[in-house]
Amino acid sequence: MKVSVLLSAAGSGERIGRGPKAFLQVGGKTLLDWALEGFSWADELVVALPPGFQKEGLKTVLGGQTRQQSVYNLLQAATGEVVLVHDVARPFVVRAAVERLMEAVRAVGAATLAVPVPDTLVREEDQQYGEVISREHYRLVQTPQAFRRAILWQAHQQARAQGIEFTDDAQLVQWLGHPVALVEGDRRMFKVTYPEDLALAEGLAQVWSS
Ligand code: CTP
Ligand code: MG
Fold it and tell me: Which portions of the chain are predicted below pLDDT 70?
Protein backbone atom coordinates (compact mmCIF):
# COMPACT_ATOMS: atom_id res chain seq x y z
CA MET A 1 0.00 0.00 0.00
CA LYS A 2 1.58 3.24 -1.19
CA VAL A 3 1.70 5.96 1.50
CA SER A 4 2.02 9.68 0.71
CA VAL A 5 2.97 12.07 3.48
CA LEU A 6 1.50 15.54 2.96
CA LEU A 7 3.25 18.21 5.00
CA SER A 8 1.37 21.44 5.61
CA ALA A 9 4.19 23.93 5.99
CA ALA A 10 2.75 27.05 4.38
CA GLY A 11 1.68 28.98 7.47
CA SER A 12 3.22 32.35 8.25
CA GLY A 13 3.96 31.73 11.92
CA GLU A 14 2.24 34.92 13.16
CA ARG A 15 2.10 33.94 16.83
CA ILE A 16 5.83 33.26 17.03
CA GLY A 17 6.58 36.22 14.80
CA ARG A 18 9.81 34.95 13.26
CA GLY A 19 8.59 34.04 9.79
CA PRO A 20 7.28 30.70 8.49
CA LYS A 21 7.80 28.00 11.13
CA ALA A 22 9.09 25.51 8.56
CA PHE A 23 12.40 27.40 8.53
CA LEU A 24 12.87 27.96 12.27
CA GLN A 25 15.71 25.94 13.77
CA VAL A 26 15.72 23.67 16.79
CA GLY A 27 18.66 21.45 17.68
CA GLY A 28 20.52 22.78 14.64
CA LYS A 29 17.89 21.72 12.08
CA THR A 30 14.85 23.40 10.61
CA LEU A 31 11.39 22.18 11.64
CA LEU A 32 10.96 21.15 8.00
CA ASP A 33 14.06 18.93 8.14
CA TRP A 34 12.89 17.35 11.42
CA ALA A 35 9.57 16.41 9.86
CA LEU A 36 11.18 15.20 6.60
CA GLU A 37 13.53 12.93 8.56
CA GLY A 38 10.64 11.61 10.65
CA PHE A 39 8.88 10.47 7.49
CA SER A 40 11.87 9.37 5.44
CA TRP A 41 10.28 5.90 5.17
CA ALA A 42 7.29 7.20 3.19
CA ASP A 43 6.77 6.26 -0.48
CA GLU A 44 6.07 9.90 -1.38
CA LEU A 45 6.49 13.21 0.44
CA VAL A 46 4.85 16.43 -0.69
CA VAL A 47 5.31 19.76 1.10
CA ALA A 48 3.13 22.88 0.90
CA LEU A 49 5.33 25.96 1.30
CA PRO A 50 4.51 29.67 1.40
CA PRO A 51 4.93 31.66 -1.83
CA GLY A 52 8.58 32.63 -2.27
CA PHE A 53 9.85 29.82 -0.02
CA GLN A 54 10.21 26.87 -2.37
CA LYS A 55 13.00 24.38 -1.56
CA GLU A 56 15.24 22.42 -3.94
CA GLY A 57 15.12 18.64 -4.19
CA LEU A 58 11.63 18.32 -2.77
CA LYS A 59 8.22 17.72 -4.28
CA THR A 60 6.45 20.94 -3.30
CA VAL A 61 3.18 22.76 -3.92
CA LEU A 62 2.23 26.32 -3.19
CA GLY A 63 0.35 26.81 0.06
CA GLY A 64 -3.12 28.37 0.18
CA GLN A 65 -4.65 31.15 2.28
CA THR A 66 -5.73 28.65 4.95
CA ARG A 67 -4.45 25.29 6.17
CA GLN A 68 -7.40 23.58 4.46
CA GLN A 69 -6.49 25.18 1.13
CA SER A 70 -2.87 24.11 1.56
CA VAL A 71 -3.97 20.51 2.18
CA TYR A 72 -6.24 20.69 -0.87
CA ASN A 73 -3.24 21.69 -2.99
CA LEU A 74 -1.20 18.86 -1.45
CA LEU A 75 -3.93 16.32 -2.23
CA GLN A 76 -3.93 17.29 -5.87
CA ALA A 77 -0.26 16.30 -6.05
CA ALA A 78 -0.55 13.08 -3.99
CA THR A 79 -0.64 9.65 -5.58
CA GLY A 80 -0.64 7.23 -2.61
CA GLU A 81 -3.60 5.04 -1.68
CA VAL A 82 -3.21 6.33 1.88
CA VAL A 83 -2.29 9.90 2.78
CA LEU A 84 -0.77 11.00 6.08
CA VAL A 85 -1.41 14.69 6.67
CA HIS A 86 1.07 16.29 9.04
CA ASP A 87 1.86 19.81 10.30
CA VAL A 88 5.45 20.94 9.99
CA ALA A 89 4.80 22.74 13.30
CA ARG A 90 5.07 19.28 14.97
CA PRO A 91 8.74 18.47 14.37
CA PHE A 92 9.01 15.37 16.56
CA VAL A 93 7.58 12.32 14.82
CA VAL A 94 7.16 9.40 17.22
CA ARG A 95 7.46 6.17 15.26
CA ALA A 96 5.34 4.00 17.54
CA ALA A 97 2.45 6.48 17.39
CA VAL A 98 2.61 6.59 13.58
CA GLU A 99 2.56 2.79 13.50
CA ARG A 100 -0.60 2.76 15.65
CA LEU A 101 -2.14 5.28 13.26
CA MET A 102 -1.30 3.19 10.20
CA GLU A 103 -2.95 0.16 11.74
CA ALA A 104 -6.12 2.16 12.38
CA VAL A 105 -6.32 3.66 8.90
CA ARG A 106 -6.08 0.19 7.38
CA ALA A 107 -9.06 -0.89 9.47
CA VAL A 108 -11.25 2.25 9.45
CA GLY A 109 -10.13 4.34 6.47
CA ALA A 110 -9.61 7.47 8.58
CA ALA A 111 -7.74 8.00 11.84
CA THR A 112 -6.08 10.67 13.92
CA LEU A 113 -3.69 10.80 16.81
CA ALA A 114 -5.00 12.43 19.99
CA VAL A 115 -3.90 12.77 23.61
CA PRO A 116 -5.78 13.19 26.90
CA VAL A 117 -6.24 16.64 28.43
CA PRO A 118 -3.78 16.81 31.34
CA ASP A 119 -5.17 19.85 33.15
CA THR A 120 -8.56 20.76 34.59
CA LEU A 121 -10.70 22.08 31.77
CA VAL A 122 -12.90 25.05 32.59
CA ARG A 123 -15.20 27.40 30.68
CA GLU A 124 -14.15 31.02 30.93
CA GLU A 125 -17.25 33.07 31.80
CA ASP A 126 -16.65 36.84 32.01
CA GLN A 127 -13.04 36.21 33.05
CA GLN A 128 -14.30 34.05 35.91
CA TYR A 129 -13.90 30.36 36.67
CA GLY A 130 -17.02 28.90 35.04
CA GLU A 131 -18.28 25.41 34.34
CA VAL A 132 -15.73 22.62 34.73
CA ILE A 133 -15.84 20.20 31.81
CA SER A 134 -15.10 16.59 32.64
CA ARG A 135 -11.84 16.25 30.80
CA GLU A 136 -11.86 12.45 30.65
CA HIS A 137 -14.30 12.71 27.73
CA TYR A 138 -12.07 15.09 25.78
CA ARG A 139 -8.96 14.67 23.68
CA LEU A 140 -6.48 17.08 22.14
CA VAL A 141 -6.13 16.27 18.46
CA GLN A 142 -2.67 15.94 16.92
CA THR A 143 -1.23 15.20 13.52
CA PRO A 144 -0.40 13.10 11.60
CA GLN A 145 -3.90 12.13 10.53
CA ALA A 146 -4.28 9.27 8.07
CA PHE A 147 -6.92 8.68 5.40
CA ARG A 148 -7.65 6.63 2.36
CA ARG A 149 -6.90 9.29 -0.20
CA ALA A 150 -10.25 8.89 -1.99
CA ILE A 151 -12.16 9.65 1.23
CA LEU A 152 -10.18 12.78 2.09
CA TRP A 153 -10.35 13.99 -1.50
CA GLN A 154 -14.13 13.66 -1.53
CA ALA A 155 -14.40 15.55 1.76
CA HIS A 156 -12.20 18.39 0.51
CA GLN A 157 -14.07 18.67 -2.79
CA GLN A 158 -17.41 18.83 -1.03
CA ALA A 159 -16.28 21.36 1.60
CA ARG A 160 -14.77 23.53 -1.11
CA ALA A 161 -17.97 23.43 -3.15
CA GLN A 162 -19.95 24.53 -0.08
CA GLY A 163 -17.39 27.08 1.13
CA ILE A 164 -16.83 25.34 4.47
CA GLU A 165 -13.51 25.68 6.32
CA PHE A 166 -12.34 23.35 9.08
CA THR A 167 -9.17 23.43 11.15
CA ASP A 168 -8.24 19.80 10.57
CA ASP A 169 -8.84 16.99 8.12
CA ALA A 170 -10.44 14.59 10.60
CA GLN A 171 -13.26 17.11 11.03
CA LEU A 172 -13.74 17.28 7.26
CA VAL A 173 -14.02 13.54 6.94
CA GLN A 174 -16.36 13.31 9.93
CA TRP A 175 -18.53 16.01 8.34
CA LEU A 176 -18.74 13.79 5.26
CA GLY A 177 -20.26 11.14 7.53
CA HIS A 178 -17.27 8.84 7.71
CA PRO A 179 -16.04 7.52 11.09
CA VAL A 180 -12.58 8.64 12.23
CA ALA A 181 -10.65 6.41 14.65
CA LEU A 182 -9.01 8.12 17.63
CA VAL A 183 -5.57 6.67 18.18
CA GLU A 184 -3.32 7.27 21.18
CA GLY A 185 -0.84 9.99 20.26
CA ASP A 186 2.25 11.14 22.09
CA ARG A 187 2.84 14.39 23.97
CA ARG A 188 6.22 14.79 22.29
CA MET A 189 4.32 15.45 19.08
CA PHE A 190 3.17 18.81 20.45
CA LYS A 191 2.62 21.75 18.13
CA VAL A 192 5.13 24.57 18.20
CA THR A 193 2.67 27.46 18.39
CA TYR A 194 3.96 30.18 20.76
CA PRO A 195 7.50 31.55 21.25
CA GLU A 196 8.00 29.58 24.48
CA ASP A 197 7.30 26.32 22.60
CA LEU A 198 10.62 26.81 20.81
CA ALA A 199 12.46 26.46 24.12
CA LEU A 200 10.54 23.23 24.84
CA ALA A 201 11.39 21.95 21.36
CA GLU A 202 15.05 22.88 21.83
CA GLY A 203 15.15 20.87 25.05
CA LEU A 204 13.47 17.85 23.48
CA ALA A 205 15.80 18.03 20.46
CA GLN A 206 18.77 17.52 22.81
CA VAL A 207 17.47 14.17 24.07
CA TRP A 208 15.58 13.07 20.95
CA SER A 209 15.47 9.51 19.70
CA SER A 210 12.21 8.37 18.17
N1 CTP B 1 -0.51 25.97 7.43
C2 CTP B 1 -0.47 25.84 6.05
N3 CTP B 1 -1.09 26.78 5.26
C4 CTP B 1 -1.71 27.85 5.82
C5 CTP B 1 -1.77 27.97 7.23
C6 CTP B 1 -1.16 27.01 8.01
O7 CTP B 1 0.11 24.88 5.52
N8 CTP B 1 -2.28 28.75 5.02
C9 CTP B 1 0.18 24.96 8.26
C10 CTP B 1 1.30 25.55 9.11
O11 CTP B 1 2.51 25.66 8.36
C12 CTP B 1 1.41 24.56 10.25
C13 CTP B 1 -0.01 23.97 10.35
O14 CTP B 1 -0.71 24.39 9.19
O15 CTP B 1 2.31 23.50 9.98
C16 CTP B 1 -0.70 24.41 11.63
O17 CTP B 1 -0.85 25.80 11.61
P18 CTP B 1 -0.35 26.81 12.74
O19 CTP B 1 0.25 26.08 13.88
O20 CTP B 1 -1.47 27.77 12.97
O21 CTP B 1 0.88 27.55 11.99
P22 CTP B 1 0.90 29.01 11.36
O23 CTP B 1 -0.41 29.28 10.67
O24 CTP B 1 2.14 29.12 10.56
O25 CTP B 1 1.05 29.93 12.68
P26 CTP B 1 0.14 31.17 13.12
O27 CTP B 1 -1.29 30.68 13.17
O28 CTP B 1 0.69 31.58 14.45
O29 CTP B 1 0.33 32.22 12.03
MG1 MG C 1 -2.29 29.34 11.81
Answer: none
**Cβ-based neighbours of 163, under 8 Å, separated by 6 or more:** none
CATH of the domain at 15: 3.90.550.10
The answer to whether the CB of 50 is under 6 A from ligand 1 is no
Ligand 1 centre distance from Cα of residue 9 (Å): 7
How many domains, in total, are found in the chain? 1
In the chain, the amino acid numbered 118 is P
C-beta 53 within 6 A of ligand 1: no
Query: How confident is the model at residue 55, as a pLDDT?
Result: 84
Residue 65 belongs to domain spanning: 3-207
Predicted confidence at residue 15, as pLDDT, reads 97
What is the predicted pLDDT for the residue at 153?
A: 98
pLDDT at residue number 207: 96
Tell me the CA–centroid distance for residue 107 and ligand 2, in Å.
31
Peptide bond connecting 144 to the previous residue in cis, omega within 30 degrees of 0: yes
Q: For the full predicted model, state whether its pTM sits above 0.90.
A: yes
Nearest CA to ligand 1 atom 25: 13
Strand spans (E) along the chain: 3-8, 25-26, 29-30, 44-49, 59-62, 82-87, 110-116, 121-125, 128-133, 139-148, 181-184
The SS3 assignment for 38 reads: helix
